[in-house]
Write a structure and sequence with these properties.
The complex is a heterodimer.
Chain A: H1 2-29, H2 32-57, H3 65-80, H4 83-89, H5 97-100, H6 106-128, H7 134-153, H8 155-158, E1 164-165, H9 173-191, H10 194-204, H11 206-211, H12 216-242, E2 244-245, H13 252-265, H14 270-286, E3 294-296, E4 299-301, H15 307-322, H16 335-352, H17 362-365
Antiparallel strand pairs in A: 1-2, 3-4
Helix pairs in contact in A: 2-9, 2-12, 2-13, 2-14, 3-6, 3-7, 3-12, 6-12, 9-12, 10-12, 13-14
Chain B: E1 4-13, E2 16-26, E3 31-35, H1 42-49, E4 57-62, E5 65-66, H2 72-78, E6 80-82, H3 95-101, H4 111-115, H5 119-138, H6 154-166, E7 172-176, H7 184-200, E8 204-209, H8 212-216, E9 221-226, E10 229-234, H9 236-240, H10 243-250
Parallel strand pairs in B: 3-8, 3-9, 6-7, 7-8
Antiparallel strand pairs in B: 1-2, 1-4, 4-5, 9-10
Classes of the chains: A mainly alpha, B alpha/beta.
Chain lengths: 367, 256
Amino acid sequence: MRTSITRNRILTVLALAGFVVFLVYAQTNWDAYRLRILNLCAVYTIFAVTFNLIYGYTGQFSLGHAGFAAIGAYAAALLTMSPEQKAANFFLAPIIPLLRDVEWPFLPALLVGGTLAALASLLIGWPALRLRGDYLAIATLGFSEIIRVLFVNWQRITNGSLGLKGIPDHTNVYWSWGAALVTIFVVKRLVDSSYGRALRAVRDDEVAAQALGVRLFTHKMMAFMLSSFFVGVAGGLMANLISTIDPKVFMFFLTYQIVGITVMGGMSSLTGSLVAAVLYTVFLEVLRPIESPFDLGPLHIPGIPGMRMVLFSTLLLLVILFYRQGLFGQREFSWDGLLNTLARLHRRVTGLWGRTPPPSTVEKGEQ
Amino acid sequence: MALLQLRHVSKRFGGLVAVNNFSTELQAGELCALIGPNGSGKTTIFNLITGIYRPTEGEIWFDGHNITGRRPDQITRLGIARTFQNIRLFSGLDVLGNVMVGQHLRLKSDPASAVLRLPHYLREERAMQRRAQELLEALNLAHLAHEKATALPYGQQRKLEIARALASNPKLLLLDEPAAGMNTAEAEELMAFIQHILEHFKLTIFLIEHQMRVVMGICPRIIVIDYGEIIAEGPPATIQNNPRVIEAYLGVGTYA
């Protein structure tokens, strides 16, 4: 038992070291296009993991992700842009004096974005988390739209529907994947703690959880604010990655994508959220050609913008119809699981070659 | 002084009077049964005591506190735990996890120290785990600790719900039809078990039962209600022959 814990720890450290090496390699050798995809993978991972926290583990169907991301994105953008850039952007109406001359480093800007998003979730959660079921979804969806409309009309702060251009490109793979790993770490540790058990209890049966002394509102609020904080940070990363934002970026469609990714990965599985977020982001790029004209046998298909989304929706539909658990269901990645799978594969391969596998310990190790 | 006091408690849902002017007292260490026909208001009384409903009139006192209108989790914190008529286990947690949720209310560490796994959190977590194990052993469920809670057989699920309620360290335990769906032999075994935990954990137990026979043997005091009102109260022997009780259960024989 002890030895396997030590072994797993070593494997985790090695895997993380390998991942860091990969990031360094990518950051120095990859072109801007591939780097952007790698960064977006991290941003979507944060979105999916945080949605999993609030819905998968706590059972609160919140549809406010786009709104919280918008808050974080605008906060980080406005705080990191240089005064000259702001002057160039705000030509219809001048920016308010408070924001005109600030130019912060990236980290505090991200943290302020996250904190503002968390405060916004406190504001919306105060009434909405007392409601059960679909009402929270409706309230948070409404909130998300209100934020967007507010940002369209807040000319002197957000530059309205013109959006912000020339946001400094601070985001690199260290920032994005660093934030993603911190998010995964915090959420994983939380859901595996006594608080996590309480959150799952709230999800499974509110009446019973409260009868056992779990403070429903406090626990829901904690999960909601933590989730929104990281969404805000991810929004900031996104703004400083794509360098141009406007309110249209944060339409309900963004939330819909996040819900889709999380469902496909598996509710209550952070591994699933990570894998699905990466697969989704990469596939979306790989599938770009299907939006240009191509021939499918005798059929000529003209270029239809949005074809990828049709495919994505179909995929989501199939998952919900036939594979409701998603990729991982409630399971998480573990070294024991991986090693067992490898051992099983090894046995099968050696079996194919007609050799009898050595009487090793693999049989016993299975769980 | 009595541990639990209900003073002239009434609960009306619109025009329907579910509980009418209900008064009773439970002394510490007592085992008392609340019985009555279907829809007589038994579970409503439990829901009033545990704060799920707020009484329309009257007051409820527990251990020197006026708990009328308090939230269920606040009431549980004061020392009242309950089980449910329809079993309400957490399907996403294993058996051990279900019991440990019952201890969460006594956790002192904040979420940040839980995430950082600070020493004082780890100490509390280990203590919780140990105590949960002990409870499971006391209830003969230890070998099932890592099974999915909702995969257990029915009788074990009932026991697990009791273990979970005990985990919150209650002074008063409310059991809502613990023997529902059991045959006579199983019900008798369960009653012996209830008597055992009453002494072992120094509890006071208030239990709802639908069938009078089940509680006759172990409960020194029985309260019978019908249409939300007490129609009889006392030791089993007097209850059994009370004409109003017989009438409530069997109806009035107009044609007999």
